[in-house]
Fold:
Amino acid sequence: MGQLDGKTAVVTGGTSGIGLAAAERFAAEGARVYITGRRQETLEKAAQEIGGDVTAVRADSADLASLDRLYATIAEAGHHIDVLFANAGGGEFATLEQVTEEHFDTTFDTNVKGTLFTVQKALPLLVDGASVILTGSIAATVGNEAFGVYGASKAAIRSFSRTWANELRGRNIRVNTIAPGPITTPGLNNLAPDDEQAAQLRDTLAAGVPLGRMGQPEEVANVALFLATDQSSYITGSEIYVDGGANQV
Structure:
């Protein structure tokens, strides 16, 4: 028997990186999985890779109408949500001098607005005792140069998990944040303009990790699974670092 047999899990941003790895892990443990992404072709490819009972719904978390369609799809199938992994997000480098209104709006719409309404609009479908997992980042606290807007957006995510854990305690819904460190994902690689500079970026980041390497999406997915199950039944409002020690020592 899988740890999530009979459960329904939703993973936003589930077409690559951490989201895809988590969706695969949830499905392997018996969950019925819904994933979202903005591109239909990528969604279909991800669904095939995940296998099992997976439904791909094209949605942009920053677009409230998209979220309404996602949850309508789940409700029309007669399902409720046991695990919600609000993972969709992203960012780009920009120093204080370089930040534009567009850069700010795009980052906060995706990471903050998207996360807020992903969780808010899920509330009628969340079962009592559900687990809500948010994707934060060590960037929320380390002050990485040229990553200030992204870091601020992830600090907001950390704040959300504390507040929502308190607000939802009457329904025994647990809310926690995962704070990944340097993880080898397409999103991280896309921060660099070409493959050579992406490799240099990975080497630089890995050099600052006590374990001496980049993390893998599957390592974050393992923590997401822990938070999704009763193995973490006494954990809420917490932030769990998956960073190879980068922000710890």
